[in-house]
Structure prediction request, 110 residues.
Amino acid sequence: MSEAPLRVLAERVAAFHITDRAMLRAQNTFTDALRAGEPSPAAREAYLRAVRTYFSGFERDAQAQLAGVDRELDLLYQRQYNLAAERGVAHKRLEAVQGVLASVAELASP
Prediction:
């Protein structure tokens, strides 16, 4: 495997604020190996395993959050649809009542 994609991955991972000691150690060990030359296959596999383990949990959390937001949006859209329909009914009722009152006003005028 070329060193360039590994460097890009290490830079992407380094952009995150990582507080997990194991991931920090894996990141530091791997970036040191990159600086020293091309990391060994064992070092690459250990780093990829650490990154996969660390970020998989965040992926699950983000997917759950996204699903929750989508559910909330669905409820909001349904409520908006229902309110728009209710507004239409109220508007038609208002027009009908105003028509009756206008007729009463015309008939009551001398």
Observations:
- The mean pLDDT is 94.
- The chain has one domain: 3-108.
